[in-house]
Write a structure and sequence with these properties.
The structure is a homodimer of 396-residue chains. By secondary structure, chain A is of the alpha+beta class. Chain A folds into two domains: 9-266, L-amino peptidase D-ALA esterase/amidase; 274-393, ArgJ beta chain, C-terminal domain (Ubiquitin-like (UB roll), Roll). Chain A is 34% helix and 25% strand. Chain A is built from eleven helices and 14 strands. The first copy, chain A, has helices at 48-56, 77-95, 116-128, 134-143, 196-208, 244-266, 285-297, 299-306, 312-321, 351-359, 385-393; strands at 9-13, 25-40, 62-68, 102-106, 152-160, 163-172, 185-190, 225-230, 274-282, 332-335, 338-342, 345-346, 362-368, 374-381. In chain A, α2 runs parallel beside α3 (116-128), α5 crosses α6 (244-266) and α7 (285-297) crosses α9 (312-321). The radius of gyration of chain A is 22 Å and the shape is globular. Chains A and B meet through α8, α9, β12 and α11 of A and α8, α9, β12 and α11 of B.
Chain lengths: 396, 396
């Protein structure tokens, strides 16, 4: 839970943004002020919240993050921008911080103004209910959900310079997920003492190998945001340069983010399972990523995974089509540990065995391009009838 | 029908490649020898048939095209190549032509060798049944179908230098359709007298504005082939250079190909309707095409079209995400003739009216990027539960 790291308080309340009456306003507070880093959508159309947070993240310390579901506050013009600033201002006032020491995030339908009376009441209510308890962390996690069916959370505990350190994260996923910034919203807390510069670097590395390697439907939303706050409450010797402590912290942060990415893939809209596409022996890392994404995004592969069918033809089709360098005579494909295509030719394999592999909640497709030494990967999920139901029946 | 142009014979027979017993071997013959042009998949993994036809298309005259469904003859190595050559050789022998004067095309499952006994018997049977009748043309069209539910055919009749000229075409579509070469298989006949050089040029232009602007699931297959044969039987003054006759011919060919592309979109796997995405005021033609494809390929847009929902947020999301230059303050989107988003802000519009537009079999989404003067378009189709059913239950 996001409150597992020392030095943080959280709350999640309902303020009427979701018609269902579910939790829709989340508040995360670091009373001592946190070093913070953030990454945002690279979509050219960005929400008001992203515009404001991109500016506020420059502050030396961040005291709070206020987030809402039930409204993306994107394509809402000047009024939307004012509303996002207002959310920061009110939160700052309640916490006796400065507005630019508060970050803001929104998710939901694009193009509608937030009902600010409700939001304002929600922020006050959340501020009153702040707590370091696990249930407060859970409420926070629930309050950022949209079509997610499950709370996404992960915790890593480890030691740095003799002190117990915790990193905790929560995220919302579901749909409109495509790199770069395959999240929608992700919030991470740590009690590690770590400088802002190192935190920025570490977050970039971790996201590059996790959330930015997740694709559900190819394009990123207008609101994607990931924020990490470091309270320093663990009391470790501050991490201020690259070295063993930084490495350890970064590795743990990456594992946490990969954990969250997999949870998002598994709970993507309509998804029943997820898969990882690993591309090896590519001419460049960019080629490897491109081929992996091509396979992970390909509806015919997603359907084959849904039907637990070892349809390597569709995998080869995507790889051959996506424009990467490859050596046809070396092109090889494995599903799980079974080679289904080797050196440009189909292999004889046990279809029942491969079906069992694909029937699992998660499996890995490995492709060798035979064109170089680079590798990369992507997480994807299957395509089900439920995805169509959710997205054809979801009306604006 | 493909036999509508003078100077062609066709046949379609069943030789047991399809388990269903449906027609699966098609033969098209131009007894006088035709000037020919062809375009093939740019997938790096190409079928044996494509390899052979790429070579044979260099011949001065083409006398026949032999095509089969029920087997792609792709990823089949040296034996597959020999089988494709064998198909040409047998066809040539029956017609007293040279093997390199015969083109070959295959479609179906990737990775299996063709059962050549059946294919050989099928070619003999087809050669015996050759006819210029409409029903022979229909049999040809049926014999190239895979998961298509409808025969795709188009005919254009016009006059050149005082003579009646016909262009006729048939195609198979369904799935694994993505540019460039969004077809799988497409065969066109014309009785126009036109030089090979002019035919090549005209086909390239026509496909660039039709089949190469169609996307069902983003990636092209290993087998995509479009072939045009010109018998010269119309007796018009031969078209040997660019000029009014060439222009007229090319325009008609493009209209025919666009007609076939729309038929393919409408009969794509599980599709219930198609839509055209037009992108205007782009910084470059490449940007316009990229944005149009991003929208046409985006599962969330395809689902919104399926549900007849005016979900412009998803359109904007894809446009903003796909990396093209845009001016947010000028970004505008129309569904049919209704503006739903103008100068970067949502417009008030009549949702019922837009729903009616999207409920049609075909509609147009128009996007203005406000970044330049270029424009381009793509055809797409909706995403239905049936697409998932077809592709999750279709087992290798």
């Amino acid at each position: 839970m996001i409150t597992s790291a020392k030095g943080f308080l959280a709350a999640g309340v309902s303020c009427g943004l979701k018609k269902s009456g579910r939790l829709d306003l989340a508040l995360l507070v670091c009373p001592s002020g946190a070093n913070a880093a953030a990454m945002f959508t690279t979509n050219k159309i960005i929400s008001a919240a992203v515009q404001v947070s991109k500016n506020h993240i420059k502050s030396k310390k961040i005291f709070a993050v206020v987030a809402n579901s039930g409204g993306a506050n994107a394509c809402t013009g000047e009024q939307g921008l004012q509303n996002a600033i207002k959310m920061c201002r009110q939160t700052a006032k309640l916490l006796k911080a400065e507005p630019n020491e508060v970050l803001v995030a929104s998710t939901g339908i694009i193009g509608e103004q937030l009902p600010m009376k409700k939001v304002t009441a929600g922020i006050s209510k959340a501020a009153e209910g702040l707590s370091a308890s696990a249930s407060a962390g859970l409420d926070f996690a629930k309050a950022i959900m949209t079509t997610d069916t499950k709370v996404k959370k992960a915790v890593r505990r480890f030691r740095i310079s003799g002190k117990n350190v915790t990193i905790a994260g929560t995220a919302k996923g579901a749909g409109m997920i495509g790199p770069d910034m395959a999240t929608t919203l992700c919030f991470i807390t740590t009690d590690a003492a770590i400088s802002k510069a190192m935190l920025v670097r570490s977050l970039k590395e971790a996201i590059g190998n996790s959330l930015n390697r997740l694709t559900v439907d190819g394009w990123q939303s207008t609101n994607d945001t990931v924020i990490i706050l470091a309270s320093g409450a663990a009391g470790n010797r501050p991490i201020v340069k690259q070295g063993p402590a930084y490495k350890k912290f970064s590795r743990e942060l990456m594992l946490l983010c990969q954990d969250l990415a997999r949870q998002m893939a598994l709970d993507a809209e309509g998804a029943t399972k997820s898969f990882k596409v690993v591309v090896k022996s590519a001419a460049s890392k960019a080629d490897a990523a491109r081929a992996a994404k091509a396979v992970a995004d390909y509806n015919l592969v997603k359907c084959a995974v849904h039907g637990s069918d070892a349809n390597w033809g569709r995998i080869i089709c995507a790889v051959g089509s996506c424009g990467v360098e490859l050596n046809e005579r070396k092109l090889t494909c494995k599903i799980g540990n079974v080679t289904v295509f080797k050196n440009g030719r189909p292999s004889k394999f046990d279809h029942k065995k491969v079906k069992k592999i694909i029937l699992q909640k998660e499996h890995t497709i490995t492709i060798e391009l035979g064109a170089g030494k680079a590798s990369d990967f992507y997480y994807g999920c299957d395509l089900s009838k439920e995805y169509v139901t959710i997205n054809a029946d979801y009306h604006t």
